[in-house]
Structure formats: C-alpha cells, structure tokens
Amino acid sequence: MTEKTDLPPILVIDDEESIRDGCRQVLEKSGYTVIATDNGNDGLTLARERSPAIAFVDLKMPGMSGMEVVDILSKDRPDTILIVITGYASIVSAVEAMHKGVYDYLPKPFTPDQLRVTAQRGLEHRALKIETRRLRREKKEMEKNFITFVSHEMRSPLVTIQQYMESLKVVAGVCLSDDARDIIKRCDRRVKNLENLIEHWLDLSRIDEGTLIRQKTSLNLVETLEKSIEEMEPLCTKRGLTLQIDIPPELPGIIGDEESLIRVFINVIGNATKYTPKGGTLSVRARSDDHYVVVDISDTGMGIPADKLLLIFEPFYRIRGQGEKHRGSGLGLSFCKKIMQAHNGRIAVSSEEGTGTTFSLTFPR
Fold first, then answer.
1. For residues 43 and 63, is the Cβ–Cβ distance under 8 A?
2. Residue 51 domain-assigned?
3. What is the rounded CA–CA span in Å between residue 278 and residue 276?
4. Segments forming the whole domain that contains residue 35
5. Which residue, 20, 189, 240, 347, could crosslink 36 as a Cys pair with Cβ 3.0–4.6 Å?
6. What is the pTM of this model?
7. What is the mean pLDDT of residues 316-340?
8. Of 71, 91, 110, which residue sits at a domain end?
9. pLDDT at residue 208 above 80?
10. Which among 86, 93, 82 is positioned nearest to 108, based on CA atoms?
C-alpha cells in the first residue's frame, strides 16, 4: 500500500514490545509512518520533535504514567489526537483520560481491524479540528475586515448626509412645509439609529480586541451604581415607573473599568424601562458574600418567553412584545455580556411571562 507521506507519523507509547510491534506492522501496512517507544519520557521527546498526527498512549507504564503523558501532550501538541491503550480493568481511568482531552480509548486485547478503525477515526477527527480552526481564523479575519469597512466606508457617508440635512434646513428655512420638516426629522432619526448601530458594533469589536477596556482599577461599586441610576431616573419618571433602590453602603469593592460598567447598568435598566408598562416597578439591589458581589436589576414588565432566554445575548436578537414600539440594535445585551466576561464576571437572566424579568450581574470581589 502507498505510504501516506502527507500525514505526520503515528506515535505508539507502550512498555509491551508485542503491542508496539503489532501496532507498527498493522499501521505500516495501511500506509502510515509509525514511531514507537517504551516509556513516557521518550514519548514526549518524540512527540515534540515529530508532532505526530496520533499518539497511542498506554495508561499503565512504569516511570511516567500514561495519564501524565496525556496531561502534557494535550497542552503541548493540541493537533495530536490522543488515544489511550488500556486493559479492561482500567476502563474507568480511560474515561477519566477522555475528560483530559483524550479522543478515544483502545481496550486490550484489540484486533488489527479495531486498531485500523480507531486510527482512521482519529485522523478524521484531527482533520475536522484543523479545518474548524482554519474556518474560525477566516471568520475572525472577515469580521475584522467588516469592522474596518464599517468604520471607514460607512461613517463618512453618514456624516455627510447629516451635514446635507442640516444645510437643507438652513437654506430652505421657512420655505419648508410641515410635511417636509417631518420627513427631514424622520431622516435624522434613521441616520442616528444607523450611527448608533455602527458604534455598538465597533464597541463589540473593541472589546474582543481588548481596546475598549483600557485600564481596570479598584472601584467603589456603590458609587458606580449611583451614577448609573442618576442617569436613568429621569427616564423612569418620564415613563411613569417607580424605581426602588436597595444597595448596602458597605458593599465590597471590585476591580474594573467604571465607564464600561456604567454603560452595562444603563443598558440593562434602559431595557427594563422599554418593556415595563406605566405604573410598573424597577428595582436595583446589590448583595455580596465572601467571594462575589451581585447586582440584581428587576422589572415588573412583560417578561421573556422561556424558549427565548438562551438567545437574548446573541448579536442582533431582539424580543418583540405585542404592540411593542421600541426598536433597538439588538447588540446591547451582547455588549453587556462581553463587558462582564472582560471583568471575569457573568450576566444571567430569569423571567416569567407577564410577571417580569431579573438580570443578575455577578462580579468577583
């Protein structure tokens, strides 16, 4: 059979000579290049020198155990597919190894067909891993190019359109009819919405690149929450909503970027005002334990259907309530989730239709 010279070699690490020789004969007959050793230390050396496509590793070996080899190779050679060789008595260990990144296991005694099938399956899995990584790189590059396009090719025309509309209002002056003024006003709103959408999208990109949050400092979360609430109180009053505050003054501090966190709190509170009818209640409460500080932002609004809860943090996804008039970019909660992740925190949601929604933001102390 023709040797598969386009593939890296297959490594066999087993202290039994008969296993090594048997694997070599079967795999070489199938066209693979095989390298083998009887101990873990030499196996690691060979793996680092030759970067094998697959490493068959015996779990029970003197000296360095197969589990130790697996631990090291899973980090050192992520493209090497790890398959453990084990006796039936150590199947539990094989399952444990799979939790460490091992792809499959081969129980002793095994037949040549079982070895060939396991190797082929491992190689197919390796090809999928490499292709997936390539596609992710391409996706990231496309996103980067799109952001560049948005920032350079779309923002300039928007600015020009705004300038033309302002000029039109000045030049036409009193000659504009009420209908014409209304049309210009609608155009202004649409351009502003598009401008906000572009800024939100650019913000998401800046978070991923690590350029939005430039410096984290020790924060008094009470003061950060007070600034956010102060900015949102006029909107709550305008919409006829009661705002309840329960923030302990002795709330522990956190490490973070105040500007981005204020935007998170404003975003979540702002969403609550959109979906809570007049006369409803919004509450901002904070609590802490020995490890975390949690901020709960709740409303008595329309709630979110259970089957939509897992989708609301996806970019551009929006919940549309019956008779809803408010339209947004669908990027706000994605922004919040990324900012919380950048602070080693998390944002979670619980909701019941017709009763209300609670967003819980958890920060490490």
1. no
2. yes
3. 7
4. 10-110
5. 20
6. 0.54
7. 68
8. 110
9. no
10. 86
